[in-house]
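hi!! sorry for the late reply, been swamped w classes. u asked for the two structures so here they r. pasted raw, havent cleaned anything up. first the sequence of the first protein and right below it the tokens
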Amino acid sequence: MRVSEADAGWRRDWRWLWAAYAVSEAGTAVGAGALPLLAVLALNASALQVSMLAAISGVAAAIAVVPLAPWVERHRKRPVMIAADLLRLAALGSVSVAAVVGLLTFVHLLTVAAVQTAAAMVFAAASGAHMKQLVPPTWRARSTSRFETTFWIATFAGPPLGGLLLTLLGATATIAIDAVSFLASAAGIRRLRTSEPPPAAAVNGESGTGVRGRLRGWLRETSGGWRYIAGHVVLRPLFANALVFGGAIMAAAPLTTVLMLRELGFTPLQYGFALGLPAAGGIVGSLAAPRLLRQFPLGKVLLAAGAARAVWLGLIPLAPPGTAGLIVIVAADTMLLACAGAFNPLFATYRMQATADAYMTRVATAWAVTSKPCSRCASSPADSSPP
């Protein structure tokens, strides 16, 4: 069942979904640094352990989520989204409780980080398919743009607010606030009233009989997202573009940090400005995306915005020391994120249109699992949160 522009119910449900996303994204942005900080302050974790907290949890989450994608594909998405939110609530809540009673361990933190990442991926996989069913095609670009804008507002305002909360309340309370945001998100999704259509029948291919046949069938089903991307004439190059661009951003990030702090002599305050201010570009770009789509064909906007993202990286090595260098780096990153802010929601809209219903969850999972290690510029709410 598809919704039409004339149906009033989907608009009300979309507003609840948007509110749920805004609350959970705000909580995530505010609590972004709380787990590593708690590891350092409460457990005296080493730099290697803090790095492991992100790296190992991400790999473990990916290994756990990929086999789950076909199961999510075959089930209604709202219960899955609510369950993922409640799982994140329980995981983060357990950290606060364990810290208060003195039972917190590094293994506990590592497990919670993996569970949180896995639940976020499952939520994203379900929410993309759900959004496609909820929102009419003519409204999808506007919808993805508003979610993208919310993401960049949280990215812009969340870390400073999180730093304030960490200073005033401590890491344990900040993590508890993040946990409660997922309860609010689940409550918002629970308010949706339009009937959710049954999931599309998954296309798995012939699996044969016997153990080997069932194993081949399971592998085909699990790898369905990657196979769909590889077989699509447009998604395939977009996928390659995401990996190349995201890989370049990921490789440049530590070098840029060294450049700013060592070569250019930025103060901690200047460094903070260089990290935080450019998110305003993402806000501007995401707000402009629907207008760009009204003026130009989708393909041309994706090509122009996607190519323009890479141009601004070339300015960063040219930055001089001092305030002038700060201005150059902030301007370059702001323009980069403005291009990314315009590209991401329009790409999410295209991927939604180009992917068959029976593959939506697996394609989203394949994309998120593969591109998750890449920078925030190479991904978007389409990969990490609704839609």
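now the second protein. again sequence first, tokens right under
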Amino acid sequence: MQRTSPTSTTYIPTGKQKNASQNAVDLLRQMAIPQIQINPVSEAVTDNAGGEVAIFINYLEASREEMEGLRTPDVKKVEYLEFPTDPRFRGAQRVINIIVQEYAYGGYTKLTTNENFLVGFSSRNNIFSKFSYKKMTYDLYVGANNWNNHHIGNNVKGIYSLKDADGKDYQLIRTENP
């Protein structure tokens, strides 16, 4: 569902979109918001002209870890704003504000593991835990990355044709292996 006003566009994610998503960027991808593009490799969120889009969760700037640890079933709505006047957005020109359920107490722990073996073995393991008690919210993030690729690098071979002191031609071959 979508609602548009002069200052923002509000999207309500469906249950299927929430359940199919693993994190905040994945939810944005599932929602297919027409004003933004998501790079499939770097997961950078930009507007259609390639400009930066700041991501906030409940009007607070979201870190990469918070976006990764977001519990998608808690998302109520997603707002897209251009040139917002609210000072909580810190002067950002384009903003995605994800509104999530806030709890008086309780929390969750989320463990994610990503493995990639197509371009060399890599893995990313994350633990994100969020706990609320009255007016305090505590976040804990632990992450580990491993990347092993023996097929990366470069090899440079330069062949130089020169003349020696007697005017005779000779070749100098230089090979670089970093």
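hope this helps!! also noticed smth abt the second:
The mean pLDDT is 91.
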